[in-house]
Structure formats: C-alpha cells, structure tokens
Specification:
Oligomer: single chain
Number of domains: 4
Helix content: 10-25%
CATH superfamily of the largest domain: Nucleic acid-binding proteins
Shape: elongated
Largest sheet: 5 strands, antiparallel
C-alpha cells in the first residue's frame, strides 16, 4: 500500500519518457505513483527500489519525490510561512508545492516570514495539511529530569490546564495554570524549569525558580518597579490578586513574600493602601 505523507521504499514497475511508475511491488503494480523524470536517479531500471516521499501535486494527484521534506506524518517541525491568503497560510516544507495551514488549524499569530510549529495530517479530502495542534505528535521520552532547564514553544494556552509547551520542539510539557502570571504568550519560546517528570513521561514545568531564589528576583523586581513609579506603589499586599498580577506580573503569594522580605530588611514601608521605598 502506498502511504501518503510518509517516506517509503517502492519498486520501479514501469518506465515512461516523463518518469517512472513506482509500486509497493510487482504484484501490486496497479497501485502506482509517478516519480517525475527529473528526479529519477541515473541508471535506475525496472525492479530497482527507491526511497521516496509521497504527497499530492498542485492538481491533487499522488506524486513521489526523492527530496527530503521538512515534515512527515507523526512528526513536529518548525516551518516558515511564505504566504497568507483567504484560505489559510502556506508553509515552506522543502517541496515544490507549499503546505497549506488552514485557518481552523492556526493558533496565535501566523504571518508571512514567521516560523510556526506544526504537525502533518490528512484532511477529509485526502490531502496533506498542517496543524498547529501538535499535542498528539509530541514525544514523552525526553532525557530531562527534575530541576533541568529547558526551552520550548508555547503552542496552546488553556484557562483550565495552563500553557502547553513543545520542549525542544519535540517533547510534551505543560506549565500549569497556577504558574501563569502574564509571562507566557502563545507562539513564543519560553525557558522553564522541570518540576516533575510525570508517570507517562510528560514534563511538568515552571517558569519560576525555587521559592528562595524566586523571592530574591521578585524583591529586586519590586524595587525596580518602585524606582520607575517614583518610589511608591498605589496598592499593597491587601490588594486583589488580579490587581497584583496586572501591576507586577506576580501572584499574590509571590508579592507578599517579596514585600515581606523587603519590609524585614527595612527597605520599604507598607500600609493598607500603599508600598513606599525607604532607601
């Protein structure tokens, strides 16, 4: 069986002036696909087996190529957007015909010249298309362990679950909702810490360091914010979590721990309505 969207080894069963026809074997010669003449390796003859990738050409006909596509079924890859029109975006995947990324399969900003992380799927019309929903094709056998630093692309953000991250554009990771405080954007790369390797191999991540390290960074950030605001903030640790997140990018607990340290060190004073720097 000829497999669309995959590299496979097929046998030359017929030669014509415009190329050769390939099939799984001679007994299945009726199921065949054309390899254009310009891609036929010199000296190839009937009975030879060639490694080819099968896709559809601009007229939606099955076609074989000896070229290496940048993406196959079951894989995830970062591809460049070469054009955006009324039906979606077209991506450079190393073949003559660009790959369609339909609007319904897009997540976040998709612009010409921008790189997007995608997987390959076969649509209802039996055509190959790209999708930015890469979850099902990410691997769970990463080499990482707890406390390792990793980088990855945020490909989906869920209010209930958090930010889904493709670590190294290859492995499955999640930054839980409790860790999201305005620092993570869809389609952007993040650096995170592995909090836990789950039983299924997927990675639980945090963009914060351990509490005692994070407190130092948060305290420094508050002092810098005070300097930018003329030495005072028009809210205190009694403010709502929403206000604190919006103003500082920290959770309320983070903010309380940091101002508590600064208060103990005598670097701020605080009341019900305000935080003020003393030095």
């Amino acid at each position: 069986m000829i497999r669309l969207g995959e590299r496979q080894e097929l046998e030359i069963v017929k030669k014509v002036e415009f190329g050769v026809y390939l099939a799984p074997d001679r007994e299945k010669a009726q199921e065949r696909v054309l390899l254009p003449i310009r891609q036929v390796p010199p000296g190839s003859d009937i009975g030879d087996r060639l490694s080819v990738f099968v896709y559809r050409d601009s007229r939606d006909r099955l076609i074989a190529t000896v070229r290496e596509p940048k993406l196959e079924l079951g894989q995830v890859a970062e591809l460049t957007v070469v054009q955006v029109d009324r039906i979606g975006a077209f991506l450079d995947w190393g073949l003559e015909k660009d790959l369609l990324l339909p609007f319904k399969q897009q997540r976040g900003r998709v612009e010409q010249g921008r790189k997007v992380l995608v997987s390959l799927y076969i649509d209802k019309s039996d055509r190959l298309c790209a999708t930015m929903n890469v979850y099902g094709n990410l691997r769970s056998d990463s080499p990482y362990k707890e406390e390792d630093k990793v980088t990855g692309r945020v490909y989906e953000i869920s209010r209930n679950f958090g930010a889904f991250v493709a670590v190294d554009n290859l492995y499955s990771g999640l930054i839980p909702s409790k860790e999201l405080y305005g620092r993570v954007e869809l389609g952007e790369d993040v650096t995170a810490r592995v909090v836990k390797v789950l039983e299924d191999g997927r990675l639980s991540l945090s963009i914060r360091d351990k509490a005692y390290i994070q407190m130092d960074a948060d305290a420094k950030a508050i002092l810098e914010l005070l300097d930018r605001r003329g030495g005072s903030l028009p809210f205190s640790d009694k403010a709502s979590p929403e206000v604190i997140v919006q103003e500082t990018g920290m959770s309320k607990n983070q903010f309380k721990r940091a101002v508590g340290r600064l208060l103990k060190e005598g670097r701020i004073v605080i009341d019900e309505r305000m935080v003020r720097r003393t030095q």
